[in-house]
Design a protein that fits this description.
- The protein has about 70 residues and is of the alpha+beta class.
- It has one helix and three strands, in the order E-E-E-H.
- A three-stranded antiparallel beta sheet has the order 1-2-3, with helices on one face.
């Protein structure tokens, strides 16, 4: 099963990276590098999917991703 993970620097804590799974809004974690945040996201995602299964809920579908470019004004 594949899910999109968004990685971004934490604007409030220098040196920390946030990892979010948009398909499961409460599935959020962090790390001190993008790689660490992604590894932590895999663990958090596995736990989230186990929790959904325990509740008898189906895993949600992944989100669609698109990139948009705008000219700076």
């Amino acid at each position: 099963m594949r899910y999109t993970v968004l990685l971004r620097p934490d604007p409030e804590t220098p040196g920390v990276w946030l990892a979010e799974v948009p398909a499961i809004p409460w599935c959020v974690t962090f790390g001190h590098s993008p790689e660490e945040a992604l590894e932590n996201a895999k663990d958090a995602l596995a736990a989230a999917l186990e929790a959904l299964e325990a509740l008898g809920e189906a895993p949600p579908p992944d989100v669609a991703v698109a990139q948009v470019s705008l000219d700076a004004a």
